[in-house]
Write a structure and sequence with these properties.
6-stranded antiparallel beta barrel, alpha+beta, about 375 residues
């Protein structure tokens, strides 16, 4: 019975995913996946704390004298008066930096994960417990309090054959911090740019600024609501006028905007990992006719002249890559793309260094119709 229920649940999830895919137009993206509203943001918080319960892997008093001061301060808060000079060994304590990210709309009582990192001479936080630590924002106010056992994720890989994690001075406390103060969120405010004079507006900020995408987002909003509510301010920001009848139901209005779909545009880009030779192409990037010789590999790309494809018997574009040893890869194509170039170079067994050098030469010659980024 349980197996049937699990299978039916899997089938339902699969069907829901297929229906969602069919519901979105081809190439369409929800606005919520490419943009966020101004004022809806995360906030970083941090604090200095102590991890106790270590088995001789904590801070050394000589190398980390401030560890003794923190321990003495903690004991004084608990009603114990201790002389720092009496603390000869503190290797079961470690001073740590505690960091966390406060999500938007977090309320007092919510829990968030924290990261704990040793800042002294401790060699391992394994088995330790973070003692109560106040986490502050950039304004100096306490927004959360963290405490709990530190998890290092001691194995990497599944099963019993996992490798031991060698990075033992950084760990996490899952849901280890309790939010004590909410960050005020201001969503709607007067329009400082006077796009909509004397009217409250929302700001929609694109994750990846693009003039075309900003224009398309504004157009999709205006078309959906049947009036000119949105105007792009630049390639990153769209100002949205909130209609008077929607101001009392602002969250519903924002949700409706987020659910609209647009065809997001992007700049043609080629990213190459020079260590592995991996090439990531942001689209079907075309390569113009060019001839390049680099480190024993020759690459020749020929193409049609403008309008030649309309002539009877016009020649197709061609890609020929060859090595000094005599190996040749030759293809006839309607047009040559970066994917074709990568496939030909891989067929010749080109090294990552050779692939990077050839694409750099393509970009320098102007034959690569895209931005090149090497990481």
């Amino acid at each position: 019975m349980r197996g049937k229920w699990q299978m039916s649940l899997f089938g339902a999830l699969l069907l829901a995913g297929m229906l969602l895919a069919l519901a979105l137009p081809a190439g369409a993206t929800r606005i919520k996946d490419i943009a966020r509203f101004g004022g809806v943001r995360e906030n970083q918080i941090y604090g200095i704390g102590l991890v106790a319960g270590l088995q001789g892997t904590g801070d050394n008093v000589r190398n980390s004298p401030y560890a003794a001061e923190l321990v003495v301060g903690m004991l004084k808060n608990l009603g114990f008066d201790v002389d720092p000079q009496q603390l000869r060994r503190l290797d079961n304590f470690a001073v740590v930096m505690v960091t966390a990210t406060l999500p938007p709309f977090a309320k007092p009582g919510d829990t968030i994960d924290v990261t704990v990192s040793a800042i002294g001479s401790a060699t391992s936080l394994e088995g330790g417990v973070l003692l109560q630590t106040a986490l502050k924002g950039a304004d100096g106010k306490v927004y959360a309090v963290a405490q709990g056992p530190v998890s290092l994720g001691s194995t990497i890989g599944g099963g019993g054959a996992g490798r031991r994690n060698r990075h033992l001075t950084t760990g996490r406390v899952p849901e280890g911090a309790i939010v004590e103060r909410a960050v005020p969120v201001t969503l709607i405010r007067p329009d400082p740019d006077r796009i909509f004079p004397e009217e409250p507006v929302l700001r929609l900020n694109l994750s990846h600024p693009d003039l075309t995408t900003a224009t398309q987002v504004a157009g999709a909003i205006n078309q959906h609501f049947g009036e000119e509510l949105a105007k792009p301010l630049d390639g990153s920001t769209i100002a949205i006028l909130v209609p008077p009848d929607r101001r009392a139901r602002l969250i519903e209005f924002m949700s409706e905007v987020e659910g609209l779909t647009v065809k997001a545009d992007q700049r043609a880009k080629v990213v190459i990992n020079q260590r592995t030779g991996t090439v990531v192409v942001g689209g079907d990037v075309e390569v113009l006719p060019v001839a390049i010789a680099q480190s024993g590999i020759s690459l020749v790309i020929t193409g049609q002249s403008p309008g030649q494809e309309e002539q009877e018997g016009g020649e197709e574009a061609a890609l020929t890559a060859s090595q000094a040893e005599g190996q040749v890869v030759s293809r006839s194509l309607a047009q040559v793309s970066t994917a074709d170039v990568v496939a030909a170079l891989n067929a010749l067994g080109a090294t990552p260094e050779q692939i990077v050098a050839i694409f750099e030469a393509l970009a320098a010659s102007g034959a690569l119709l895209a931005e090149l980024e090497i990481i």
